[in-house]
Amino acid sequence: MSNHHGFENEIGSDLKDLEATLDYQFHSLSLLRQAMTHASFTNELNVPDHHLLCNERMEFLGDSVLSCIVSEYLYNEYPELPEGHLTKMRSALVCGESLASFAEKLELNKYLFIGVGEQVNRNNPTVLENAFEATIGAIYLDSGCHEEGKEAVRKFLIPLITEELKVLAPLGYSKDYKSLLQQITQADEHVLPSYEVVEDLGEPGPERYTVRVLLHSNVLGTGKGPNHKKAEIAAAKDALALMGLIRNESES
Known about the structure:
There is one protein chain. By secondary structure, the protein is mainly alpha-helical. It has ten helices and three strands. It has a three-stranded antiparallel β-sheet with strand order 1-2-3. Helix 4 packs antiparallel against helix 5. The longest helix is centred in the middle third of the chain and has 23 residues, at 146-168. The model is unreliable at 1-5 (pLDDT under 50).
């Protein structure tokens, strides 16, 4: 491995570049390296206690810190809102899709240390979500934990969640795209949309299935996914984007 001042992963991405993207300077860059290390990478090292070298424990910590910071922010920022509404907002902010989208904005996929057999999952949403939570855990630990750690995480996290709240507001703070599309079509057309598979690549992969969503035989949107359900969600999301109700991924 490289030294403290510049870890490079197997695709040549230097963690010092990621440090600049995060706008946080680590006292111990090894913490950031661990946050970017998938369990499959340490499994292949064939060393004792390899589970202690990957980002899973850091992800566990980051998940708790994330929930705490988001809860505090919403509580203070929206003093007029009842508990139920705050819970809905928090759920939308910390759901897997939101966290994966944060990871995509930061291009964490470029910096992940992943085992040879798992390279196909470098862009897997769950892998990205976990890496983002681990990044929060790394910042928290590097800043000394306690209030200092929380303050460092706030500085990193608040800009991301305030921008995400702007996206979520028109959706009623929900990312249940199929239900949202169903509500819209029922209100406007009094019919439900239907979904059909238009392509099956036949082999496991993140884009195995292509599905389109239809209304009165008109195509509203198209999406891809590793299974029928996720492809349908992607199609509903595409339809909502084409309707101008949510932002396209390319418009971030």
